[in-house]
Amino acid sequence: MAASSPFIYARCSYSPLITSFSQPSSSSSPCCSSSSTPNSICTPLSGANKVERHISLRAEAMSTTTQGKSPARTTGNLKNDPDHLLVLVHGIWSSPGDWSYAEEELKMNLGKSFLIHASSSNAYTKTFTGIDEAGKRLADEVMQVVKKNQSLKRISFLAHSLGGLFARYAIAVLYSPDTYNSGQPDDPVNCEMENSQKTDFSRGMIAGLEPMNFITLATPHLGVRGKNQLPFLFGVPILEKLVAPVAPLFIGRTGSQLFLTDDKPNKPSLLLRMASDCEDGKFISALGAFRSRVVYANVSYDHMVGWRTSSIRREIELGKPPRQSLDGYKHVVDVNYCPPVPSDGPQFPPEAVKAKETAQHTQNSVEFHEIMEEEMIQGLQRLGWIKVDVNFHSAVWPLFAHSNIHVKKKWLHNAGVGVVAHVVDSLRQQETSSILPTS
């Protein structure tokens, strides 16, 4: 298989996954299913339980640690300064102001141990310059924040929409494969779900800090090409086919990357590369270093990002959209933990292999992009993910789902306050479990 279909994997190799999680008996299943499926682990998190610059930033991130520790960060925090950096990353054609409501809620509920930083390096048209360029700017910005705040020890990311892809690129720039253990004792009653997310990738630092939470809200992890991946096209095949070549005229390099049209004969599309560890960056290792990875996805009414791409699922895994809200978190309808699925690469049937080989010469074929999507899913599913489904079907303005999910403007998008509350409580719970002493 590998010899007959080298195109997509050119210059991008996956490394085997080793996980301490005991896989369910049906571990061949691509992902978890609904909470009613016995093999799934469903855990409500809340309440209950450029190139030079790129290289320079990587070196900078690695030099921030000394055997995993920055000397300035090992002497204790005598001034009670924040030790946990939470980076908020906005989406396309947006600005830090989009986080005003969420930022206020986070500061009020998480306390002084958190430094909440709304990223400003990619405002408005800067989001059109490409996911890679925006990711490098974000990484630079994070390093500047870390340098100015010597008390910081831990780092988390909360990103909306396209910002989630910027953040995924940035953490690969900031990643250093360090084996530093924070020294924090494990909480004996910490849930098995959290422990099962810890894989062999779970060793490394981000900007010299211990990576904790990586959370995305309605992020197109698989791009926006394909059936219903860009919902405002209503799933009409001719529209979905026509929009891909014209997208760069409106949103620049970012458009070609999102529509997977940036590939070259010897280099796959950026998003496919970002589903692996390759010469461009240790994308999977950087993600795997985080204690928790969470994706929030709108199951419907999101005109910008489809359910499948935002939740890293296949079409057959979607099922019927849940509608009943979880207690205390209006419009949050389901939470599932999908354990890591070990994979040395895709296992395609013979007809798919043939389609892939043919598609290397006709890269606009539907089969080619379906195969690319499958490979992205398989790459990303080598890590465990918590998947949170959101449904604004009962909201006054459900068609604002893409902005509701992070309450872009409180007076207009306040249907999403329950989602923000769920994020806040999840962060607070994770923070508590990471500092509780053993009995």
UniProtKB/TrEMBL annotation:
Which organism's genome codes for this protein? Medicago truncatula (Barrel medic)
Q: Does the keyword Coiled coil apply?
A: no
Q: Per UniProt, what is the name of the gene that codes for the protein in this document?
A: 25485953
A Pfam entry, by short name: DUF676
- Domain (DUF676) ranges: 80-309
Q: Taxonomically, which superkingdom?
A: Eukaryota
For this protein, the record's InterPro entries field holds: AB_hydrolase_fold, DUF676_lipase-like, Lipase-like
MF terms from GO for this chain are: hydrolase activity
Q: What is this protein called?
A: Alpha/beta-hydrolase superfamily protein
**What is a biological process (GO) this protein takes part in?**
lipid metabolic process
Alphabetically sorted, this entry's keywords are: Hydrolase
